[in-house]
Amino acid sequence: MQLTILAAVLVCLSVNGYAQVDVGKKQFALCGACHSADGSAKPTGPTLKGISTRKAAADTGYKNYSKALKTSAIVWTEKELDAYLAAPSKRVPGTSMMINVTDAAKRKALIDYLKTLK
Ligand code: HEC
What is the pLDDT of residues 44-54, one digit of tens each? Predict the structure, then answer.
């Protein structure tokens, strides 16, 4: 009996986890206009493949990084991604990324998805 409940809870937790990544994947439609998810180069923005725990401005295929991002010394932890996505030019004054994701739950889902881009 207890095992059944435990199994049910675990199933719920993992379904929930996938749902979150799924929501984030849908959110990524907002980003895909400028960023690739698969490492390919786009002139409009650096790839977000491997962004989680990467240093800021480290995509060697992208040539138009702002000086502000290049000198920011940020490492993209979950916390840094959250602050940047909430208000890029507040976290990195002078950045050329203009998209704000103001909804915290949407940011969380997006970041969960970004972490899967390896
Ligand atoms: C209109 C184009 C555009 C859209 C849409 C856009 N970005 Fe960006 N993004 C950029 C540009 C340009 C940069 C480089 C900024 C700089 O050099 O200051 C950037 C930089 C970033 C970085 C830092 C990358 C690095 O290599 O350090 C992250 C993370 C990021 N964007 C996430 C997102 C996410 C997530 C979304 C969707 C919610 C998004 N961006 C939507 C243009 C865009």
Answer: 999 999 999 99
Residue bearing tokens 């095992």: 3
State if residue 35 touches ligand 1 by the CB under 6 angstroms criterion: yes
Q: Which residue's CA lies nearest to atom 33 of ligand 1? A: 31
Is the CB of residue 95 less than 8 Å from the CB of residue 89? yes
Which ligand 1 atom lies nearest to the CA of residue 92? 18
**Integer Cα distance of 95 and 50 in angstroms:** 20
Ligand 1, atom 2: closest residue by C-alpha: 34
Write out pLDDT tens, residues 2-25: 666 656 555 555 556 677 889 999
The first and second tokens of residue 10, run together, are 């675990």
Q: What angle do CA 86, 24, 47 make, to 5 degrees?
A: 75
Residue matched to tokens 């290049």: 70
45 exposed, middle or buried (CB, 10 Å; 0-12, 13-18, 19+)? buried
